[in-house]
Batch of 2 targets.
Target 1
Amino acid sequence: MGLQSGRPVVLDVDTGVDDALALLLAVNSPDLDLRGVTCVAGNTGLEPVVQNTLRVLDVAGAPLDLPVAAGARRPLLDPPHIAEPAATQTAEHVHGADGLADLGLPESTRPLDRRPAVQLLRDLLLGSDTPVTLVPLAPMTNIALLLRTYPEVQEKIERIVLMGGAVNGGNVTAAAEFNVFADPEAAAVVFGADVPITMYGLDVFYSVRVSETEATAMAASDVPSARLAGQLLLFRMNGELGSAEIGDAGAVAAVIAPDGLTTEALPVRVELEGRYTRGCTVVDRRAESDKDWDPHRGFPAPVLDVALGVDAIRYAKLFVETVS
Ligand code: RIB
Ligand code: CA
């Protein structure tokens, strides 16, 4: 990897349409120095995630020596009451049968790093001269295993900016967001890390949108990254709204331009039980004075910088301009 300017980052992905948008933004941003990418099962199985990730990096023209490693193919625990383990659920309704909008991108010949994801993450973090920003955009199994296997890497993590959770509501269930639902135990381990964490949840995830007009123009571009981004956005286009969310790419925008995100330091717990609530991120917005009678007050929750608002126009513009 040549000398790079910009903030050092590593992405953990389950590519997926919006993970692909995040990769396109990270590779093309002059403000970021993408050091590596790790893959985990989630939107689709691990092998398709790896193939999709390599294909997207080919389109983006990422350096061939950018390390990509495969990680966990299942969550830490397969929940007892889900007929099919969350991470092996198909994502056809969101990401297409191949997990990448069924665009039929050519197979990649890009080499996969021989190291497992946890090893690559460790080597990238401990080998970096300056602390690295970790950007998990998928079920957090790889990150939890990293923190439990090599806790010393925490000194070399500048911040974890993760897409996951929600202050209100869910998407995969009424209570839970997919990345946390797919591996709630892993999310709880990551939330408890001794590093600053930004939780980029559903409350902002769907707000950053690109219009159908703009996506159509991008899909006609002769710039490969813009063309692929346009095709992916058109695949996710919401006919009623006339726009599509950039999803995970918004978390990358939050690394590039953190002042575009409104956050508040709030206690967050991950619900691990509950037939209907497993994977819920319980964000405590109560005033301190209201907590005197809280039976849980003896069990302090991790405090995360929770995204409550986003400058959606600015992030959408940043995304479109950077990939174009
Ligand atoms: O809930 C949204 C998240 O689930 C995104 O990361 C999307 O790619 C899926 O993994
Ligand atoms: Ca994802």
Note: Residues 46-60 form the longest helix (15 residues).
Target 2
Amino acid sequence: MGKNDPFKNAMRQLAEANEIISIDKNIYAQLQHPQRVLEVFLPIKMDDGHVEVFTGWRSQYNDARGPYKGGIRFHPDVSRSEVQALSAWMTWKTAVVNIPLGGGKGGVAVDPKKLSDRELQELSRSYMRAIAKFVGPNLDIPAPDVYTDPRIMGWMLDEYEKMFGAHTPGVITGKPLSIGGSEVREYSTAQGAVYVLLRAAEKLGLAKNSTVAIQGFGNAGSFMAELLERAGYRVAVLSDSHGTICNYMGLKVAEVATHKKNTGSVSGYSGANNEGEKHCLEHEVDILIPAALENSINAENVNLIKTKLIVELANGPISQEAEKVLNRKNILIVPDILANAGGVVVSYFEQVQNASGYYWKKEEVLTRLKEIMDLAFDEVWKEKEKNRTTMRLGAYTLAVRRVEAAMKDRGRN
Ligand code: GLU
């Protein structure tokens, strides 16, 4: 189950939240579906001259609180159901941190590592052409996600502006700084997670030099490792799809990053014990940070986990069966829709800066981000205490109620 139908799982989470808050029936019925899903077929002339057709989607789940917002994923496992699930999670995410945006998500089923630079640029432009009429600064604003980055956002922005003949930086976020990106955006997902991690660690009384394992060393995971090392934590275990490295004295994150840049993996780094990819979760650490893909913690491996705190940097990294086990063991889980919301919060700041044409300094972005993350953490904690439930359900009930209120105020019930 699960892995094959992520949207069904997302709806199960909604149902669980609804058992606590019983929202309006007519609104609940609408939330069983995205408002719109585009499916696009993208013919790309490959370098050897043959044409390959890639399939992509853009799911617009809910826009009651503001324009649809969410990243674009380039990954071979992307499916319509996954994109829909991710678009629902974006809706709860923007609601839980209370920014005036809805939720959407896009993706293309492709392994971008197998494409040349030219093919990747062609695919990015072609995807933007296909969805252009359905996105815009007041309608739907894409951003980076797994295997997409500022460079790709730059190509997509350029394609959009060519089509409509006007500068429109607010149509996409996570752009390079040179063309309207925001300070901090590149590491904002990790930065936001650090702010909530500090709050959670305080609740559990964890020391500043606690040990950390991070599963996944991509966009979010690598910045998280760097920021936590700088904050005094011991980053003891790091993994990617090729292997796990471990050093309980604390890994030197910058060296690991250079090693990964040169070899394509953390594996083989000389300042650590080298193990297989699966071993990442077996280590006894104070804090575990899943930063890879969905369901990476599941029924098969959950019993190996020995930690006190899990901060979900990835979207949906814990399967529902695994979560039950972790809850029974009293491991505190800071859920994805709160823990990784820093990315979309700074995307929102980027849009505000684009709309005003006036750009903020790094310190200003950090101060405002911290303010939003701290408040959201405290509100979720309060909600969890009030309902005597988990942080995930606390975040869900808070977010779903906010979406319900906006739908009611629009008369959509
Ligand atoms: N892809 C990121 C996420 O899942 C960021 C989305 C955005 O900035 O719109 O939250």
Note: DSSP finds 13 helices and 13 strands in the chain.
